[in-house]
Amino acid sequence: MIAAPPIISMDRFFLFSVIFAVSSISGCFSAYSYTTQWIEVPVDHFSFANNDTFKLRYLKNDSFAHDPQSAAILFYTGNEGDIELFAENTGFMWDIVQPENRLNAELIFAEHRYYGQSLPYGNKSYDSTKQLGYLSSEQALADFVSLLQEINPGNKRPVIAVGGSYGGMLAAWFRMKYPHMVSGAIAASAPLLQFSSITPCEVYNRILTSVFATAYTHECASNIRKSWATLKSRSETDEGRAFLTKTFKLCTNLTKHEDISQLTDYLTDMYSNLAMVNYPYSANFLAPLPAYPVREFCGRLKEANLNDTQLIEALADGVSIYVNYTGKVQCLNMKSSTTDALGTKGWDFQACTEMVMPMCTDGIKKYGIRPRSDLEMISRYGGNQISTATNIVFSNGLMDPWSGAGILRSPNDHVKIVIIPEGAHHIDLRARNPKDSQAVIAARRIHLDAIREWISQN
Amino acid sequence: MIAAPPIISMDRFFLFSVIFAVSSISGCFSAYSYTTQWIEVPVDHFSFANNDTFKLRYLKNDSFAHDPQSAAILFYTGNEGDIELFAENTGFMWDIVQPENRLNAELIFAEHRYYGQSLPYGNKSYDSTKQLGYLSSEQALADFVSLLQEINPGNKRPVIAVGGSYGGMLAAWFRMKYPHMVSGAIAASAPLLQFSSITPCEVYNRILTSVFATAYTHECASNIRKSWATLKSRSETDEGRAFLTKTFKLCTNLTKHEDISQLTDYLTDMYSNLAMVNYPYSANFLAPLPAYPVREFCGRLKEANLNDTQLIEALADGVSIYVNYTGKVQCLNMKSSTTDALGTKGWDFQACTEMVMPMCTDGIKKYGIRPRSDLEMISRYGGNQISTATNIVFSNGLMDPWSGAGILRSPNDHVKIVIIPEGAHHIDLRARNPKDSQAVIAARRIHLDAIREWISQN
């Protein structure tokens, strides 16, 4: 990965895991109120060899429903992280249930098993595949089925699934696999086609590169490209490592040549994350960041013909926006971009089993399991052969690297496609903001119209 | 069960298990030729705690396909029994690939896991839930997905699922759950609604009773009704038990009062089975039987005002048609109606887990497992809420007791309903016969037209 690749040298599959984890990081404030509830579900929905059960968490707010008996259920299909973080970061759902919209709906945010507090085997849940083996998208969907069976007996009230990123994949699959339970789905920035035999490997990085190439000056992308070799060569001497440690304000000294991979991994994640959350307003989704953080970053790398020292200094300056926009962070912790609290333990496993990644040769060693081939996932969910799907809106921001694997063409009249040309990762699911572009506002209007239509069909 | 119930005292759930097993009994001749093939599949398709694999059997004949590269695949979704028996008893599939129909199709008969030779753990497969726990309809469907992924990469060729009874449920569910893999499904006599909260308990027995009440004289049903009490009272004395043993030609003597339950269980199964296979021609599906075996049986019970002895003698006379139509059977073996070779070990388990039966209070004791509630099965597959289903033909014979739980009304323009007024259990999937009624001939024509249409959509 540090072998000075042609453009930005990032393993898109590693990014895949990182970025999904990113979605679960949020601010610390709680703008929305809900009750926390639990439902007992089987650990294994599909076999009878393991009869254990566990408690799945979900959040509920029915205070906006003016007739609880007939109220629609807006159901967030929780993805890889603490469900409270998704509840906080899906302002769209909170916005549309406000009285002025007269939607008569309640909100449910269902936690995905093995994340947050929904741990089938408590703190032993990740100990081995004996416990962890029941972490899969299909089991998670079956949890949602169990939950809806409980809170909506007979499917009398219309249910709308909503999700972003991997949660958007789940929302779409939920509608496809259980249409009797889910009247429709809003799937935002859901890379349903992110399987190597459908989407060419380089698409992700091509979009990512263009985000950095067009944000300020084209030099930004060139400088990033040059920096990999410079970082590598500087890391080869004691003097160079001391320079890097000081310039990037690293929390731990680079002591040997190999340590540089930690820093380049960190940068790799950072580029991807910056593109994801490149929102037109200051936000605290992955990290506290200014509006348009990619432009801000590239503003520090706008010059051509920087020498090696200047290049590293400019890069470190840019990185400080990501690391320390608040000015309160003392040093760059190269291990801080993803943490256990964010469910990366679980996502690493999913990435190595069903969200099949090339890096799974490591996964086999790590978990001792047989990963599925990407063909298996395509067989299960249809891949790009979804002509029978109905009542789904797929939305994608074209400045989101994941959009290359999104559903950008409708297979039929019952599936709607929303494109947000300048949009980052599922910005349309965020709370409304004065800085929202017309395209984002329009996307949310399409979502709401679709939801109304699906509810009326019930 | 022997407590002299109002009409014909049969536990419909017990019947459910028996009758499905019945489908797997066939003649001994092999009219059709195929190659036997195997594919390795995971024991558990939905989790990663068990990484075992096993070999699933399937039968193939592509000799009728004039262009193997583009040939459609007629895919029998194997149910609870040896797949060779289903291949032999699904003459409809063999008939329609004959050259005069110009269908360009190959035949695949896929065995259901835990039946026939597709035993995940060999002769230990039924030892405990540790081995047996992976027997479920969802795992079976996932086996079929794996098989199609292998023989039809990229889903380039159209696939039509065909099945009868539980196999018909699988065919319909296969299309509903994996529409990208299956262009359409013929679901014959598939009791998709056979779950207690959807279909009233008494429907099965009501139809069964009417089959016997209308076959010859109404006295037949009255005599059967009377016989339960007579059998019970006769079994209370040594003399009565000797009389019953002799009259029914039992292989083992009735020695005590409780033994009578074996005989009444046998009769219970027999009535159901006779109605199932009440075909207009002599056949050997469950047992060698004459044409219209119910009429034949009722011909022996046509008189009114029989005394107790006459009633038992007439009943035994009727039973002999079922037991010994060939004249070669020496005695009535009360344990012979279902045998291990027919997959009843597996079906008993399915009946106690997902095909949820009231008798499962026994099942819990027997297997130590938590059965699913019937609501769970409805949640998984939709129950009667199948308005998004497309490209399925549901056929039912109205003289088939299972038809009361069949899909008799189309939810939309893309689902076709076929009614065969005088039809028994999935007679339309049998080979054509000069005695076929116009309704059966028409049903098969509708099936073929639908198959052609679905193939042309591909």
Describe this structure in words.
The structure is a homodimer of 458-residue chains. Chain A has 458 residues and is an alpha/beta fold. Chain A contains 16 helices and 10 strands. In chain A, strands 1-2-4-3-5-6-9-10 form an 8-stranded mixed beta sheet, sandwiched between helices. In chain A, strands 7-8 form a two-stranded antiparallel sheet. In chain A, strand 7 and strand 8 form a beta hairpin.
Strand order of the largest sheet of chain A: 1-2-4-3-5-6-9-10
What is the element string of chain A, with H for helices and E for strands? HEEEHHEHHEHEHHHHEEHHHHHEEH
The largest interface is: A-B, 46 and 46 residues
* Low-confidence regions of chain A: 1-29, 357-363
Oligomer: homodimer
What is the number of strand segments of chain A? 10
Largest sheet of chain A, if any? 8 strands, mixed
Q: What percent of residues of chain A adopt helix (DSSP H or I)?
A: 25-40%
Helix-and-strand structural type of chain A: alpha/beta
Continuous helix count of chain A: 16
- Global geometry of chain A: globular
Average pLDDT number of chain A: 87
